[in-house]
Amino acid sequence: MADPHGFQKYSRHDKAHRPVPLRLLDWHEVYEKQDLTDLRQQATRCMDCGIPFCHDGCPLGNIIPEWNDLVRLGRWREAFDRLHATNNFPEFTGRLCPAPCEGACVLGINDDPVTIKNVELEIVEYGFEHDFVKPIRPSFSTGQSVAVVGSGPAGLAAAQQLTRAGHDVTVFERHDRLGGLMRYGVPEYKMEKKWINRRLEQMVAEGTQFRTNISPSVSDLQGFDAVVLAIGSTIGRDLPIEGRDLEGVYQAMEYLPEANKVQEGDREVSMIDARGKNVVIVGGGDTGTDCFGTALRQGAKSVVQFDIGPKPPRPRAASTPWPTFPRKLRVATAHEEGEYEVSGEEEKELVEKLGLDARVKGHPLGNRQWKTNTVEFIGTDGKITGLKGTLVDRTPEGTIPIEGSDFEIDADLVLLAMGFASVDRAGIVDELGLEIDGRGRIVRDENFRAEVPLTAGFRAPVFVAGDAGRGQSLIVWGISEGRSAAAAVDRQLMGESSLPTAIVPTDVPMRA
């Protein structure tokens, strides 16, 4: 069992961050590598609870106490195998998941929870460094072929599971590179894309085939024995107010891919660049925060992020008691950078490279603004120059403006990051005649299968995984759904399946 006194001997210690002036000069990941002795102490804090609620907090059902204790004992190979038993890509979740498992950690009832996410990441990185990662090739071929449309977390997880089950799997991706939103939505400073490429090498060696630069039509999918649609929920929620058509107002997913293409070497300069501009981000979630950190690295004159909600409390809010995912004030690395005050000679290189001479010395680089609603974009000669907003309160009757709180703010670039409204219906979704529910999701049954009308002329079963069926969600849910959909496909083709099924998404309305 675990060390029963570990949580008493050691306090929580998160990974250190690289200094702000240094990390704003490049696009490398912001975290320092954690000392393994320190990491083992953090794993020792896990109490191996009689009822480990972290299992339920994790959509993948990761067996967290077991691999924590294996790390404590220095049994890295066993920890690596136990982690991969439930998670195909822990190097992705270890960097990008908001860690609902930590919100459910029993230690978190009256203490800081275990650093589960950090331990997870170091296990897989230790495995790569020590050559634990090998292709897992199927021992036989089923003679069945499966098309997976989309190469985000759900698509890649489904493809890897089905390939290992012996099926002939082809992944179709409409972009020039694989990875979905991990590739072109997540900034390089949060996850360097070499980690995606590294895992793709394993999948190619296992036998998964990939086709990029193609949005498959029904004719492209004819001949496959089953199809998995993992196309995401990619249509951004818009803000149809006066001035929306002004030049300089963009969706976040128009802006972020451009910055990533520069890092991939496809561009010298982003087609939508924040350098020297007053940037306003409308939306307080992760996508808006990604825009925040990106704009800072591009050398924005100022960055302001609007959140329509009230500022959360620093401790867990009473409305989200343990073991639910806690609502509390979170300071992302981008916000940490925004709070940094430029001053002194030691920042000379930063000032010169990012053009910070245009900023006010001794003041933060950027900030967040709470309870803020945007009501009008204003401009000159067809270009955005600012916006009008107001502070709001949330009431049982809805969001209402606070009297006398109207304001105007300069803006040369406005980024809309208010979440994603629906799946993209153009192309394969409309061709197959798939039903879309009121929240823009493809309707599917409890086995992840969508109903294809006979008029579509397509007879192979179609399954839906990830955000396309669930709606906008977390990377960990994408992998979970990809694994579960793969098991459903395998059962459909073979009559039974030994592939594991992750947590069934019972909280998502499905067609009976």
From TrEMBL:
NCBIfam families: GOGAT_sm_gam (TIGR01317). Keywords: Amino-acid biosynthesis, Glutamate biosynthesis, Oxidoreductase. Residues 37-68 form the 4Fe-4S ferredoxin-type domain. The lineage of its organism: Bacteria, Bacillati, Actinomycetota, Actinomycetes, Mycobacteriales. Signal peptide: none annotated. Coiled coil: none annotated. Pathway: Amino-acid biosynthesis. It is an enzyme of class 1 (oxidoreductase). Its EC number is 1.4.1.13. InterPro entries: 4Fe4S_Fe-S-bd (IPR017896), DPD_II (IPR028261), FAD/NAD-bd_sf (IPR036188), FAD/NAD-binding_dom (IPR023753), Glut_synth_ssu1 (IPR006005), Glutamate_Synthase (IPR051394), Helical_ferredxn (IPR009051). It comes from Corynebacterium kroppenstedtii (strain DSM 44385 / JCM 11950 / CIP 105744 / CCUG 35717). One of its GO terms (biological process) is glutamate biosynthetic process. GO terms for molecular function: glutamate synthase (NADPH) activity; iron-sulfur cluster binding; oxidoreductase activity, acting on the CH-NH2 group of donors, NAD or NADP as acceptor. This is Glutamate synthase small chain.
